[in-house]
Write a structure and sequence with these properties.
Blueprint (H helix, E strand, L loop, with lengths): L4 E4 L9 H17 L2 E4 L13 H12 L5 E2 L15 H14 L2 E4 L3 H13 L21 H6 L2 E4 L6 E6 L3 E6 L7 E3 L7 H11 L4 E5 L6 H10 L6 E5 L2 E2 L15 H6 L4 H9 L14 H7 L10 E2 L2 H13 L3 H14 L9 H11 L9 H9 L7 H9 L4 H13 L6 H15 L3 H13 L7 H8 L1 H18 L1
Parallel strand pairs: 1-2, 2-3, 9-10, 11-12
Antiparallel strand pairs: 4-5, 5-8, 6-7
């Protein structure tokens, strides 16, 4: 086929993590860049590991990032059904044909025998492969419904000699000796296919042309290739994506923090930023570009830009990218998206109009790596500080001789302001410092701590303008009282 067809085929055995979604994203980008089709298939044949709600969480993660399939589960299409548990008749038909042609056989070895055999081989430090006891017994295949009843499975008759090779787009020719390939189970006792069997059949029947998946599947691919070739089918182009490592260069896991996409959403990472960040985990547009819109990413994506080296999941880089996207939003948008985080910390913004809230986040927008930081960084705009940063208070206030006199004079001058623009506040402070013949920074640091309780933040005079003359005066009065109580 000329048209590229790719698929994302997750197993509903847990909730989608970074690696899963990165795979989905790369498939989506290739399809969109080439005008191809992106298919969503649910591979739910491992019934023992099935996790309730995981299909819904997979769909949610894709929707969150705008990774929309062209066909598949929830979208329909001519190659359905797109859930493997609804395709059992297809697997039965292929298995019957393979047994008939001698490429597969029925095995009735009890599970206990298989486990004992494997345990013995492991003890002897040998490959724990099935010994092919049933390979020439010619047990008839009576359909998937009879497997459980008869205690049977269907196995692939793997070649005993030679080498199986396939081409990986990133790694070139990959070869495995056939005597290391087990007679893998195709259909299990419960009548469900194994991953290897169903995956190959579905990719073939759905006309999948390119298989982009994690490099952990490299060792499984020879089995898939043998299945394709035994049936006379053309195998797709295999592209095994690099591993994702944590900052410590070890395989990404929960010890590195949140690995679930929904967890990052709950932490205030914007979907657009996550989309951008994930696209750079194993792919580069060239020219050291790092901030790309969805449209730019799609237009520039290509297989040539993929790397075979492991990608590093750098949380600081994700937060930096997120801060760029946050800074592009309006103050009102940031406020609306931050409400949930403010409320969770008991910060009530209902008493303030949206115009005020918009101004707050307009001056904070370049200081929010994550939206979850909004509660800590915006709190003093909605609540007078109850406590002051100890170090800042000691250094910038208490240890400064005559600071109470300076702030009292500043307080009097501020009360006389009418408009309260940032220029007004700055002029007022500089005039006050000049009258005492002290450096303006001395008053700037003391005023900042008095108003916010913190040693750093946005521009002081921008803060004053947003708070307004009344609030600045009130907070400064409280700080002066606290200073006098200390003396």
């Amino acid at each position: 086929m000329n048209k590229i067809r790719v698929r994302f085929a997750p197993s509903p055995t847990g909730f989608p993590h970074v690696g899963n979604v990165r795979t989905a994203l790369f498939n989506y980008l290739l399809a969109k860049n080439t005008g191809g089709s992106f298919v969503l298939r649910i591979e739910d044949t491992d019934r023992e590991r099935y996790v309730e709600g995981s299909v819904e969480s997979i769909v949610y993660a894709l929707n969150l990032l705008g990774i929309s399939p062209d066909e598949g589960y929830g979208f329909g299409g001519e190659f359905g059904p797109y859930v493997q548990s609804e395709r059992l008749e297809l697997y039965d038909t292929v298995a019957r044909e393979m047994v008939k042609k001698g490429f597969a056989y029925v095995c009735d070895c009890p599970e206990e025998r298989i486990e004992e055999l494997r345990a013995k081989l492991r003890e002897e430090k040998k490959n724990p492969m099935y010994d092919r006891f049933c390979r020439n017994r010619n047990i008839p295949y009576q359909g998937i419904s009879s497997l459980k009843e008869n205690g049977q499975v269907v196995r692939f008759a793997a070649p005993l000699e030679g080498v199986t090779s396939y081409k990986d787009y990133l790694r070139g020719t990959v070869s495995f000796k056939n005597d290391t390939i087990d007679d893998m189970v195709l259909l299990k006792r419960d009548g469900f296919p194994t991953y290897n069997f169903a995956n190959v059949i579905d990719d073939h029947l759905m006309n999948i042309t390119h298989v982009l998946r994690g490099e952990e599947f490299i060792s499984s691919t020879p089995k898939h290739v043998l299945l394709y070739r035994s049936m006379g089918w053309i195998e797709p182009q295999f592209i095994h994506l690099p591993l994702i490592l944590g900052a410590d260069k070890k395989r990404l896991s929960k010890r590195h923090g949140s690995v679930s996409i929904s967890d990052y959403e709950k932490d205030g990472i914007l979907p657009e930023a996550m989309f951008n960040f994930l696209s750079l985990l194993g792919w580069s547009p060239g020219n050291n570009e790092e901030i790309l819109s969805r449209e730019e990413t799609i237009s520039k994506f290509s297989l040539e830009g993929l790397s075979k080296s492991p990608a590093v999941f750098d949380l600081k880089k994700l937060e930096w990218i997120n801060s760029i996207y946050v800074s592009k939003l309006s103050g009102l948008d940031i406020y609306e998206k931050s409400k949930i985080f403010l409320q969770a910390e008991g910060i009530d913004t209902e008493a303030f109009d949206k115009g005020y809230c918009s101004k707050v986040f307009e001056i904070l927008k370049t200081r929010l790596p994550k939206l979850s930081d909004s509660a800590e960084r915006a709190k003093y705009f909605f609540q007078d500080p109850v406590e002051y940063d100890y170090t800042a208070w000691e250094k910038s206030v208490i240890s400064v001789p005559k600071i109470d006199l300076y702030l009292e004079r500043l307080h009097e001058n501020i009360k006389d302001l009418t408009l309260g623009t940032k220029e007004d506040f700055e002029r007022c402070l500089r005039d006050t410092s000049k009258s005492f013949e002290v450096k303006p920074n001395l008053l700037i640091h003391a005023l900042r701590v008095s108003l916010t309780g913190l040693p750093a933040g946005p521009g002081l005079f921008e803060i004053c303008e947003v708070l307004g003359v009344e609030a600045v005066s009130r907070r400064l009065s409280k700080a002066i009282l606290k200073i006098k109580q200390h003396y």
